[in-house]
Amino acid sequence: MTRNVARLAAAMLLTMIVLPFNGHAEVQTVGLSELFPNERQARTTLVINKVLERLHYRNFRLDNQFARETVSNYFEDLDPNKSFFLERDVDRFTRGADRLDDDLSKGKLDTAFDIFRVYRMRVDSRIEYALSLLQEPFNFDLPETYQFDREDADWSKNDAEVKEIWRKRVKYDYLTLKLADKTDQEIREQLRKRYEGITRRIHQFTADDVFQTFVNAYTRTLEPHTSYMSPSTSENFDISMRLKLEGIGAVLSAENEYTVIQRTIPGGPARQSGQIHGGDKIIGVGQGLDGTMDDVVGWRLQDVVDKIRGPKGSVVRLLVMPKAEGSGGRTREVRLVRNEIQLADQAAKSYIIDESTNDTSASAPVRIGIIELPAFYRDFRAESQGNRNFTSTTRDVRKAIKELKAQSIDGLVIDLRGNGGGSLTEATSLTGLFIDKGPVVQVKDALGKVEVEVDPEPGVIYTGPLAVLVDRNSASASEIFAGAIQDYGRGIIIGEPTFGKGTVQTLIDLDRYVPGKDADLGRLRLTMAEFYRVSGGSTQLRGIEPDIRFEFGLDIEDHGERSLENALPWNRIHPARHAQYETHGISLLRERSAQRIAQDDGFRMLTARGRLLSEMNEQDVVSLRESERRVESDRRERILKQQRDNFLRARGIEPVDEDADHVDEDALEAQQDVIDRIQAEEAARILADAITGMKRVDQPRSAMRN
After folding, report:
1. How far apart are CA 227 and CA 503, in angstroms?
2. Are residues 583 and 630 in the same domain?
3. Is the per-residue pLDDT at 6 higher than 80?
4. Are 225 and 164 in contact (CB under 8 A)?
5. At what angle do helices 477-488 and 424-431 cross, to 10 degrees?
6. What is the pLDDT of residues 445-478, one digit of tens each?
């Protein structure tokens, strides 16, 4: 299940500040006679082949095996839940894949368009049957189950098998809405619109849409971060870079027929609401305080993005199925006020935790400064215009450190949880605040050439005890910074193993590879280099393994780069010469932290949630018996609510009822802030233990690792 989610997330990732490349409800139906390849697409294919062969970081060879895998990926991208195609459709085109490599080497795309035309006819047939089922009664007392995730299932052998899948699918969809307290009439009308919408959107696919879908299956066969943007996609991308667009501040992906929240952006309305979380599914979008809630299950991702985006200050309502509810669980309506996401919203923020320690001789609590760093940002436009005071991560952190030092902190934690990366320049210069000089990261290109990014400014801004807090969503530039701090022995790395994004992409305009003007071939996002730590190991795939690891019952292999098919492997090159700080004490710190965590209500809550999510990640079948579904939904809600309420009340906070008619959003946001600081507080305790331990053995304050 998670492999499919991760693959589609990598292929279709969009943010709420990016325009859709195509698709509004008003787009005219495209006739089957228009869905054939043209000469421009053939030229584009030849150029893409050439670029992949010459510039991609991984050696590219277009052969029979690669062609077969491309066809398989294309089928999966069109029909990820295996509910439209028949086994004979797949077999027929797979048998012909042995000649596809020859066809593609000549720019011939007939197979890709043949498959799509069959797909469109299959969609028409399946949806016609689904609509007919809406005329029938349903019995929810029968001991039936529905396999909602069919990624690993076989293709249906005949029409009878695929009809049975759709019979259960419609029953499942109906029961899900019934559990949300919809009436029979409301349910049947909503599902009718949903299924008709699937057909309508498939009929709106243009030849360029088909071509882009196929090429992305083609490039994904090589590596998951290489992708193609058609001319219309490229045009809208350029517009999004010029305009100030408003939305909810969330990164979305497509999972089967659902739009899924991948992560929320710091400073955005979604994050600030405290009601939107990674893994939640958006199943409805409404405009204003009382506009019609449109069912968006089965919509193209770009259409959902277009529906959610809107003017700053306007209201959008989302009908969300929380990840913790599982597939087909209860839904929640969330009201958000659209806003523009500014650099300032993602800027570093700091606070202080006064932490007691195990040292009975200590006269006062140890003061730990916390700097939350949601992204590695740099205002390149202001910099290029000669503004010497341009916004920068390093500048903001430098300022925060000075302010914290003025308040007599004993140690410092850099919180990189949820930091998906950003500017390499900032990751390098930020590292330089904590080391005197030396290399920070190595970058190896497709030709094997290695360049070393070094600390740009000699000297150290902060010499005291340091820890870096990371989680599974800390990626790219975050991993560069954390890896350098760990390699130098400059601080303790605490938290979960990181995302494992160690590759470098660049955007290539394909027109530059053809003679003449106005070729209009689109762009290729190409993986062309890889990051390596100064110790020689890559950040790719494995990420950064913390010195002190937090466990929440989740399988780390189901997340990040590790879950992507065809991801580049971990690798090693020669280490770069670098200083090494004196190290000691991690084993004892790890032991003391484990003892505290075992008794901590906050970690019990996070672990209960993690185990429940892990349980749901492994589930691909759900009951179609109403009584069983209600019992299971109540069980999950009870576990999560009980653990959360116990934790909050232990902190003297009365929990907010998120399902109440009127939710105090300020109180909800404050409640979420307390939950978000659970791990930061334990990181502060670990660092406090390290500080008192160093004082006892009279060692330098910066020496903290084995």
Report:
1. 14
2. no
3. no
4. no
5. 20
6. 999 999 999 999 999 999 999 999 999 999 999 9
Q: Which of 421, 424, 466 lies closest to 441, judged by CA?
A: 424
Q: Name the residue range of residue 122's domain.
A: 22-229
* Averaged pLDDT, 618-624: 91
CB-CB contact of 491 with 468 (8 Å): yes
> Of the candidates 553, 566, 372, which has an alpha carbon nearest to the alpha carbon of residue 472?
553
Buried/exposed code over 659-674 (b: 16+ C-beta within 10 A; e: otherwise): eeeebebeebeebbee
Amino acid (one-letter) located at 246: E
> In whole angstroms, what is the distance from residue 318 CA to residue 516 CA?
47
Q: Looking at the structure, tell me whether residues 452 and 572 fall in a common domain.
A: yes
The verdict on residue 480 lying in a domain is yes
Q: Is residue 347 part of a domain?
A: yes
Average pLDDT, the chain: 87
Q: What is the mean pLDDT of residues 272-296?
A: 88
Going by C-beta distance under 8 Å and a sequence separation of 6 or more, which residues neighbour residue 393?
A: 348, 373, 375, 376, 377, 378, 422, 423, 426, 430
The predicted model scores a pTM of: 0.86
Per DSSP, the residues of 340-371 read: ---GGGGS-EEEEEEE--S-TT-SSPEEEEEE
Candidates 705, 698, 674; CA nearest to 585 is 705
User: What is the rounded distance in angstroms from the CA atom of residue 533 to the CA atom of residue 480?
Assistant: 7
Q: Residue 1 in contact with residue 149, Cβ under 8 Å?
A: yes
In this structure, the chain runs to a length of: 706
**Token pair of 13 as six digits:** 């990732």
Q: What is the DSSP letter of 311?
A: -
* Cβ contact 196:131 at 8 Å: yes
Are 299 and 283 in contact, with CB atoms under 8 Å apart? no
Are residues 58 and 191 located together in one domain of the fold? yes
Looking at the fold, whether 643 and 588 belong to one and the same domain comes out as no
Q: Strands 439-445, 411-415: parallel, antiparallel or unpaired by DSSP? A: unpaired
Residues serving a catalytic function are 476, 487, 501
Residue 257's pLDDT is: 77
Q: At what angle do helices 207-222 and 2-12 cross, to 10 degrees?
A: 120
Asked whether the beta carbons of 288 and 282 are under 8 A apart, the reply is no
Q: Report the alpha-carbon distance of residue 252 to residue 265 in Å, rounded.
A: 11
